[in-house]
Amino acid sequence: MLSKLKDLRQKLSKSKAGFIDKIAEAVNIRKIIDEELFDEIEEILIKNDTGTEMAETILDALREEIRTDKITDPEVVQIYLVDIMQNILFKDIPDENDFFELPEDIKPFVIVFVGVNGTGKTTTIGKVANRFAQAGKKVLIVAGDTFRAAAIEQVAIWADRAGVQILRSEPNRDPAAVIYDGVVSARARQYDVVLIDTAGRQHTKERLMKELGKIDRSIKKACPEAPHETILVVDSTTGQNAISQALHFNEAIKLTGIALTKFDGTAKGGIIFNIKQNLQIPVRLLGIGEGIDDIENFHTVRFVKAFFAPAEEIEAE
Ligand SMILES: Nc1nc2c(ncn2[C@@H]2O[C@H](COP(=O)(O)OP(=O)(O)OP(=O)(O)O)[C@@H](O)[C@H]2O)c(=O)[nH]1
Ligand SMILES: [Mg+2]
Asked: Are 120 and 287 spatial neighbours (Cβ–Cβ below 8 Å)?
């Protein structure tokens, strides 16, 4: 189930305004193509969290193509730039399978959500549970964030909203033990999918990172092939720090994908390019609001279209 392209465009509008529209402005006020224009574009890219390395890659390609094609009209620069950026996003994309389509032969399909504090793990689990429940799947949420009683309550509210089962424990029980119980019980009761919530943890805290290894082992003890997906939930407004979070978490527990949350609230869509350049981990989910339906299966073609396509094209959809 995908929202209409127009709706997605709407949700991305803040990010688009701070990024693509800024470039259009910079280009439109200029009569000639000069170094100042290139510098300004580079600055916009960096401000948008593409990372300096990615901004340089983009600018080098832009200069080269403008020179080769002998372009003199600044307005054409934007067309070239968008083309270069699209190509970067399209580079080496694997076959993007829909996050919400579960393989028939794996049951239960175990998904763990990890990330630093407050990135949107619990909210994302609520939204994902709802999607699976709507598709008729039998879903179990495991409240693996046992540090705070409030965290257990919060995820229980989401389970309720989504109309799915939850395995909750007394606060302060060992999360690895609770999660083990959850997976064992999901196997015994033939659940289709298990969504595991974990406590937020700073990627620089070694002890907490080690705990992820323990969680991973306890899942494997209950189901040797699991977890089938390990999703790092990243707040898209955190900028460059997202990369270091991903690298640290990936060392502690092998990540299979990223959920990029709060994309509706960021004016810095460049983080997508930064991730593409610096990580071999695909973005799988896009959080675009606080509501239960505000989640998208990340699909590059759709994203690029919603982000870059001219208004007429979006209207025509
Ligand atoms: N605008 C917006 N807000 C979001 C999105 N996802 C989560 N939030 C908000 O972010 C805040 C934190 O969300 P949680 O789901 O509690 O985050 P968490 O990672 O579980 O937090 P901890 O368990 O404390 O580490 C809440 O206010 C959510 O409503 C999103 O895609 N868009
Ligand atoms: Mg939480």
From this structure: yes
Q: Could you identify the atom of ligand 1 that is nearest to the CA of residue 199?
A: 23
pLDDT class of 171 with cuts at 50, 70, 90 = confident
Which ligand 1 atom lies nearest to the CA of residue 116? 25
What is the CATH classification number for the domain harbouring 170?
3.40.50.300
Is the per-residue pLDDT at 286 higher than 80?
yes
CA distance 307 to 303: 6
pTM of the model: 0.93
- If one counts the domains in the chain, the total is 2
Query: Which amino acids bring their CB within 6 angstroms of ligand 1?
Result: 115, 117-123, 145, 151, 200, 233, 261-262, 264-265, 287-290, 294
Atom of ligand 1 nearest to the CA of 154: 16
34-82: pLDDT as tens digits: 999 999 999 999 988 898 999 999 999 999 999 999 999 988 998 999 9
- State how far the Cα of 50 lies from the Cα of 35, in Å rounded to an integer: 20
Provide the domain limits for residue 128: 109-298
pLDDT, tens digit, 9 for 90 and up, residues 241-275: 999 999 999 999 999 999 999 999 876 778 899 89
Same domain, 22 and 142: no
258 and 116 in one domain?
yes
- Separation of 143 CA from ligand 2 center, angstroms? 9
129 close to 164: Cβ distance less than 8 angstroms: yes
- Pinpoint the alpha helices (H) of 108-240: 121-134, 149-162, 175-188, 206-222
Structure tokens at 238: 């955190």
- Answer whether residue 312 is part of any domain: no
Task: Among 28, 61, 94, identify where a domain stops.
Answer: 94
Closest protein CA for atom 26 of ligand 1:
120
